Amino acid sequence: MKMPSFRGSRQTKPRAPRRKFKMLHKPLERWHPGTRKLLDWAITVGSVLFCVLMLPTRFLGMELLGIGPNWLLIWVVAWSVKRSVWEGMLAGIVLGLLQDAMTSPSPTHAITLGFVGFLTGLLQKQRFIEEDFISIALIVFVMAIVAETIFGLQLTVMSYTGSGQSLRPVESIWAYYQRVALASAILSSLWAPVVYYPLNIWWQKMKLLEQS
Hints:
The protein is an all-alpha fold and about 210 residues long. The protein has 8 helices and no strands. It starts with 6 loop residues before the first helix and ends with a helix. Helix 3 (about 35-55) packs antiparallel against helix 8 and helix 4 (about 70-80) runs antiparallel to helix 5 (about 85-100). The longest helix has about 40 residues, at about 170-210. It is elongated, with a radius of gyration of 24 Å.
């Protein structure tokens, strides 16, 4: 009398975990468009949170005269360089409000980053720049100086009382922000590829998948 074989049932049990992670092994081309869109937004929002967390962080080589890279400005440039003027400006305003929530709403970073997004989108629309690392580093350098200049202008306006007298010397404000602008521009341009390179590859891939 032969005993019934249970080999078939034993072989099917280990396959259950594989089915659970089957979607992770699929190429992105075979994913559902809605799932791809959700993943795209998750990575985009995650990169913003990464930049927010990196703002107060100081590692070796990430500080010059007490100033670190402006990670949110780098993100705004990376986002705006291939998008419209209004998309860049909106992203800059949103990220500026996030930075205000971490620091102080007065003076606001929404104006500075919003202008950076607007100007970066305008440059790309006019085809004044190329999309390589040197061009991106140069854009970040210029935009960091522009952002710090606008921030200094806000401080200058806020330093005056209703009587027209300055609460602090304007010369001291601009002497300080000249150093801040230069240090921020140098560090931000050097660290720009850390944010731009992976995001640019990912967004290009998502764009090609949407067009296919």
